[in-house]
TrEMBL record, chain A:
The lineage of its organism: Bacteria, Bacillati, Actinomycetota, Actinomycetes, Streptosporangiales. It comes from Marinactinospora thermotolerans DSM 45154. Residues 140-230 form the Acyl-CoA oxidase/dehydrogenase middle domain. Pathway: Amino-acid metabolism; tryptophan metabolism; Amino-acid metabolism; lysine degradation. Residues 243-389 form the Acyl-CoA dehydrogenase/oxidase C-terminal domain. The keyword Oxidoreductase applies. PANTHER family: GLUTARYL-COA DEHYDROGENASE, MITOCHONDRIAL. This is glutaryl-CoA dehydrogenase (ETF). Coiled coil: none annotated.
UniProtKB/TrEMBL annotation, chain B:
This is Electron transfer flavoprotein subunit beta. Keywords: Electron transport, Transport. The keyword Cell cycle does not apply. Signal peptide: none annotated. GO terms for cellular component: cytosol. The lineage of its organism: Bacteria, Bacillati, Actinomycetota, Actinomycetes, Streptosporangiales. SMART domains: ETF. It comes from Marinactinospora thermotolerans DSM 45154. Heterodimer of an alpha and a beta subunit.
């Protein structure tokens, strides 16, 4: 064999050629989302972040719906029925633009639609899923409360029977898309245990207040939900959901999207830093020529590729029906931390420029503070992993 | 096919799709035979062909019927065919034969005309030029080979019964050009905004029929195609010269006029 058979040098942007195992559909979906995100989202995201909102959430939902990204790996009811890996790739390419945009998709598809798809009645599925898949109806998911985060079993929102109806009282907190949602999936304790309810917007006693003054996930709408004597018929209850396991299984789906998403955020920060280090000249040379910068870049390329491989492997396990929830915990634990390291290093390589919205790095770094907390904090996932490998639960 | 309520009969629309090297990557020629080195960069759908696909899909949405993709190219052109199907086309014909390698614009038009004879169509839509060779003559040559009217550089297409009417973009505005179907239409990028493939259609694309056609299947005369029989020849190629220094306009009261004159001389205004 001669030189012509020497493998080509790796692509700096995909050093381990992670995407070479994608099938044709997965590759098409990645390309489509990347193209859409680059042309339709990236030019606006810094403005949205600065404004602290998504100015046209209905328009964005429709565009996502036209693409088919909402509930894309669910079957039937207007959903595309892709592989879990394809869904992960979509999350990766969206979060390469901004964690807030991936959150929009996670809440709609992995939380609200999954809850209805998995635990809803046939009537509930037919009423909501096709419109939610098309982006014509927006959903949100109310589990967390002001005083109930990592310990959702301590929730105070209650549902009590009144004849054949239910009356709900309580407050939900940190609810993405709460104030723009057409339907809220709300979890409440009952005498029989935790149950889920579909609360349509406009139901008397139900209101949503936008949470302002966030320093993270600013290109996203976050709300508080207030339930004050909300009367619902029995047909609003999710008949398949019994106990805390139901909402936690939805969170596991959203977490799966995060495992992929943060690999995209990390990649975006790394690419920005690589570009900046190659063009920023100090002491007569590009700063990429300095050893301290190269060490940062080497650490970043390892973190970016490890995160991408971790996501892909967990996705392959999921498509094979062999993914345990602690493996998703592994992915969230490992990949969010990797993305935070990359975003921090990228911010430092950008110097003063790195603190502005002209560059994506601090925006990602700030977003990742939220991502590290929601759908299970780093501490909770560390404990989940610890229990999985030692067999000893350290949290109870 | 019956006409109901004034609605024109469903149409068979064929879109010509060419796979070209991604303009975002470095493109190379093969020094051995001066043809395009297709292995050196990723293949994508020629940009203007995406507008042609979109226009065909809009025509189908309006008039009913079927959109068929016709692409001549090597094995890797299947990627572009799949993307076209993911945008919503119904089926495809892939003309693929080593004998076609190195064919010039005229030969390509001949080969495409032969392939078109294997299917029924009312209208053929294509991009007005490709980003690689940029000859912009395939549509016209194809119409000649087929003996059909050609309506080129369309920025608007209307079909009413058996009549097709387009706006042909010109430097000063547009001409209205009309013909009877079947006809060949080439489009410019002002005509529409191509849609993104939807995931549902991406998932469905692999189930859509793609007819593989070789030169014999299309009754293409081997003596009329390929590099050896080409009517034109790429004699030589060279790297683009480095950019020359620009012209500096110093504003002494006439700067605006000088810039306007410069832009006019380059036909930008």
């Amino acid at each position: 064999m001669g030189d012509q058979h020497k493998p080509a040098a790796p692509d700096a942007r995909d050093f381990l050629a992670v995407d070479t195992s994608l099938d044709a559909e997965e590759g098409s979906i990645r390309d489509t989302v990347r193209d859409f995100a680059t042309r339709e989202l990236l030019p606006h995201v810094a403005d949205w972040f600065e404004a602290g909102t998504i100015p046209d959430p209905r328009g964005l939902a429709k565009a996502f719906g036209d693409l088919g990204v909402f509930g894309m790996h669910l079957e039937g009811y207007g959903c595309a029925g892709t592989s879990a890996v394809a869904y992960g790739l979509a999350c990766r390419e969206l979060e390469a633009v901004d964690s807030g945009l991936r959150s929009f998709v996670s809440v709609q598809g992995s939380l609200a639609m999954t809850a209805i798809h998995r635990y809803g009645s046939e009537e509930q599925k037919r009423e909501w899923l096709p419109r939610m898949a098309a982006g014509e109806a927006i959903g949100c998911f109310g589990l967390t409360e002001p005083d109930s985060g990592s310990d959702p079993g301590s929730m105070r929102t209650r549902a009590r029977r009144d004849g054949s109806d239910w009356i709900l009282d309580g407050t939900k907190m940190w609810i993405t898309n709460g104030s723009v949602a057409d339907v809220a999936v709300v979890w409440a304790t009952t005498e029989e245990g935790i149950r889920g309810f579909l609360v349509p917007a406009g139901t008397p006693g139900f209101s949503a207040n936008v949470i302002h003054r966030k320093l993270s996930l600013r290109a996203s709408i976050t709300s508080e939900l207030v339930l004050d004597g909300v009367r619902l018929p029995e047909s609003a209850r999710l008949p398949g959901a019994a106990g805390l396991g139901a909402p936690l299984s939805c969170l596991n789906e959203a977490r799966y999207g995060i495992v992929w998403g943060v690999a995209g955020a990390a990649r975006a920060c790394y690419e920005a830093a690589l570009e900046y280090a190659g063009t920023r000249v100090q002491f007569g040379r590009p700063i990429a020529a300095f050893q301290l910068t190269q060490r940062k870049i080497a650490d970043m390329v390892v973190d970016v590729n490890s995160a991408a491989l971790t996501a892909l492997q967990i996705g392959r396990l999921k498509d094979a029906g062999a993914c345990h929830h602690t493996q998703v915990s592994y992915g969230k634990f490992a990949n969010v931390a990797a993305a935070q390291r990359v975003a921090g290093a990228a911010r430092s390589i950008h110097g003063a420029n790195g603190i502005t919205l002209e560059y994506p790095v601090l925006r990602h770094l700030l977003n990742l503070e939220t991502v590290a907390t929601y759908e299970g904090t780093e501490e909770v996932h560390a404990l989940s992993l610890g229990q999985a490998v030692t067999g000893i639960p350290a949290f109870r | 096919m019956g006409v109901q309520g004034g609605r024109p009969p469903a149409m068979n629309i064929v879109v010509l799709v060419k796979q070209v090297p991604d303009t975002a990557t470095e493109r190379k020629l093969n020094p051995a035979d001066n043809t395009l080195d297709r292995a050196s960069s990723d293949g994508v759908i020629n940009e203007l062909d995406e507008y042609a696909i979109e226009e065909a899909l809009l025509l189908k949405e309006k008039h009913g019927g079927e959109v068929t993709i016709l692409s001549a190219g090597p094995d890797q052109a299947t990627d572009s065919i799949r993307k076209a199907l993911s945008m919503g086309a119904d089926k495809a014909i892939h003309l693929n034969d080593e004998a076609l390698h190195g064919s010039d614009s005229l030969q390509t038009a001949y080969a495409l005309a032969q392939a078109l004879r294997t299917t029924e169509f009312d209208v053929v839509v294509l991009g007005s030029e490709s980003t690689d060779a940029r000859t912009g003559v395939v549509g016209a040559a194809l119409a000649e080979y087929l003996g059909l009217p050609q309506l080129t550089l369309a920025n608007k297409v209307d079909i009413d019964g058996g009549t097709i009417r387009i706006q042909r973009q010109t430097d000063d505005g547009y001409d209205v050009v009309e013909a009877q179907l079947p006809a060949v239409v080439s489009v410019v990028e002002k005509i529409n905004e191509p849609r993104y493939p939807s995931f549902k259609l991406i998932m469905a694309a692999k189930k859509k029929p793609v007819t593989k056609l070789d030169a014999a299947g299309a009754e293409i005369d081997p003596a009329k195609v390929g590099l050896a029989n080409a009517t034109t020849e790429t004699v030589d190629f060279a790297a683009a010269p480095p950019r020359a220094a620009g012209t500096v306009v110093k504003d002494e009261g006439t700067g605006g006029v000088q810039i306007a004159d410069f832009l006019a001389s380059k036909k930008f205004v």
